[in-house]
Please model this.
Amino acid sequence: MRLHTHIWGPAQGEGFPILCLHGHPGSSEAMDVFTAPLAVDFKTYAPDLRGYGRSRTAQPFEMTRHLDDLEELLDRYQIESCLVLGWSLGGILAMELALRRPQAIRGLILVGTAARPHGSHPPITWQDNVITGAAGLLNWALPGDPLAIALGKKSLFRYLIRQHTPEAYRYLAQRGTPAYLRTSRRAESALFGAIRAGYNRLPDVRTLQIPSLMLCGECDRHITAESSLETARALPDCQVHCYPDTAHLFPWEIPARVNQDIRVWLEAHPTLWQ
Model:
C-alpha cells in the first residue's frame, strides 16, 4: 500500500532521513510534536499507517502488512539508510523494521513503547465513556479551556496525561481527536489481534546492534514504564529517560524536555546521520 506521507525538511539542502511512526490511534499530523523541531536539520517522513488518517483501506489486514507498507515507502523515496522514531505502536513497528531491514536502520528513537508491551489500565465503566465523550467535545470546541481541563481530569484523559496543562489539551483537541476519528476498525482489529496472540519480541531485539534511545512516562498505564525499561535492558546499546509524573502522552505534556533529550542523543551520535 502506498501510504499517505507528510515530508518536512531543512529550508536549504537535504537532511538525513528520519522515519516518524505514530501510535494507535494516531496519524502523521500527531507526530508534528517531533517532526517540527527535527525538520530544522533532518528530512522527516511521517506516514499515516494503513487504516489510519488518509491511508484508507476497506480490507482486513494483519500487523505485518504495516511493515510491507513501510518497506514500500523506503523504496519509493529511495531511502537507503535512516533513523526511525516510533511512538507506542510506532515504536513496535520501528523495532520490527530494524529486524527486517537491519542494513537500512541506523538507530532507533523509541517513545512510550515496548517489545513485550504490558498495560495497567483499570476497567472502563460506562460513566468513564460518557464523561470522556463530553470532555473531548468540550475540549475540541474550546482547546485548553479551564472547564475542559476540569472535566478532562474526571475522564479517561486522566490515564493518558498526568500534567493537565492547556498545551497538552490543545494537542488532544488538534491532533488527538482527529486521529481518533480517522482510525479505522480494520486498524483496530489488526492491533488487538496481535495483542491477543501474546506479542513478545524481547528475545529478537537483543540482536539489534544499533544505538537506541528509549523515552517513557513513569505513570504510563497503556504501555507501562516497566515494560519500556525491560525493552531498554534487552537492547544492546540503549539510553533511557523515564519522565516522572507523566503518562502515555508525555510528549504532549513536556514537549520541550522530550525534544531536547532527543536532540542531545542525536548530537552524541553524529556518525549515525552525518
